[in-house]
Amino acid sequence: MDPIKTEIVVVGAGPGGYAAAFYAADLGKKVILIERDPRLGGVCLNRGCIPSKALLHAAHTVSSARESEHRGISFGKPTIDVSKLRAWKESILNRLSGGIAQLAKMRGVQVLQGRGYFEDSRSLRVETAEGQQFVHYDKAIVAVGSKSTMPKAFDLGNPRVMTSREALEVEDIPESLLVIGGGYIGMELGTVYASLGSKVVLVEALDTILAGADPDLARPVIAYAKKAFKEVRLKTKVGKMSTSGKQIKVEFDFDSQKKEELYDRVLVAVGRSPNAEDLGLENTKVSFDEKGFIHVDEKQQTTDPAIFAIGDIAGGILLAHKASKEARIAVEVIVGEDSAFSDITIPAVVFTDPELAWCGLTELEAKAKGIEVQVAKFPWAASGRALSFDRPDGLTKLIIDPDTERILGVGIVGTGAGELIAESVLAVEMGATAKDLALTVHPHPTLSETLMEAAEAFYGHATHTLVRKKPEQG
Ligand code: NAD
Question: Who lines ligand 1 at CB under 6 A?
Answer without folding.
Answer: 180-186, 188, 203-206, 211, 237-238, 269-272, 318-319, 349-351
